[in-house]
Amino acid sequence: SQTIHQWPATLVQPVGSPLSLECTVEGTSNPNLYWYRQAAGRGLQLLFYSVGIGQISSEVPQNLSASRPQDRQFILSSKKLLLSDSGFYLCAWSVFGGRGEQYFGPGTRLTVT
Amino acid sequence: AQKITQTQPGMFVQEKEAVTLDCTYDTSDPSYGLFWYKQPSSGEMIFLIYQGSYDQQNATEGRYSLNFQKARKSANLVISASQLGDSAMYFCAMRDPSGAGSYQLTFGKGTKLSVIP
After folding, report:
1. Distance between alpha carbon A27 and the CA centroid of its chain, in Å?
2. Contact (CB, 8 A) for B113 and B44
3. Interface of chain B against chain A, CB under 8 Å?
4. What phi and psi values does residue A94 have, to the nearest 5 degrees?
5. What distance in Å separates the CA atoms of residue B104 and residue A72, rounded to the nearest whole number?
6. Is pLDDT above 70 for B101?
7. pLDDT in tens, A33-53
8. How far apart, in whole angstroms, are the C-alpha atoms of residue A10 and residue B65?
9. Residues 6+ apart with CB under 8 A from B24
């Protein structure tokens, strides 16, 4: 069966510090991968998605970047965090060419102080 | 542009009763997919049910069913025999049309369901 991992689960970082969140998927090959951000009490905002190694599409201009160095690894990064980067970050995967349902990881709660 | 509307910010239901969570959508694409997700307080998004635009029957998954009314562009989630563990945020989502085997989802703002013992 497929499993998606995200770490860390929680993170408190000062403004201006770098960020690296990692997501890995097990049990499937060539998945579509996604990064979302959810502000407190709000809906999901798609940040990035990827259909293959090295292929990244960005949905909104922002202080963040994403990379996919391996087929089942997706990394969200920032060189200098802003207060507005605080939120709940979710990684998800879907089957390439499937129905489109996405399966989510447990998420990372990021607080920028 | 695709749009998902959930008009109920919060709902209450008595334990063991059924509850309907509303979702309307807007799209010009004849082929689309609709999804419901549950987000408990832990934060993880849990996929519940899927309905394709060409599916002839309403989708069902255990206690979850989807009341799909294509002409009205609505895809309401029905939870039967509510349990305390059903208390959570519920999100309706629609698959965006895109090519090359990649789909994005447009999410509604969610409905917070509270089950009362």
Report:
1. 19
2. no
3. 33, 35, 37, 42-47, 50, 52, 91, 95, 100-105, 107-110
4. -145, 160
5. 18
6. no
7. 999 999 877 789 899 999 999
8. 34
9. B4, B5, B7, B72, B73, B74, B75
CA-based nearest distance B72→chain A, Å? 23
Q: Which tokens sit at B73?
A: 């562009």
Residue A72 tokens read as: 């089942």
Identify which of A51, A100, A107 has the shortest CB distance to residue B95. A100
Mean pLDDT in chain B?
Answer: 93
B56 Cβ contact partners less than 8 Å away, ≥ 6 residues apart: none
Report how far Cα B12 is from the mean position of its chain's Cα atoms.
Answer: 17
Residue whose tokens read 């202080």: A63
User: Which two three-digit tokens encode residue A1?
Assistant: 């069966």
Contact: A44, B108; criterion CB under 8 Å = no
% residues pLDDT > 90 (chain A): 80
**pLDDT over threshold 90, residue A21:** yes
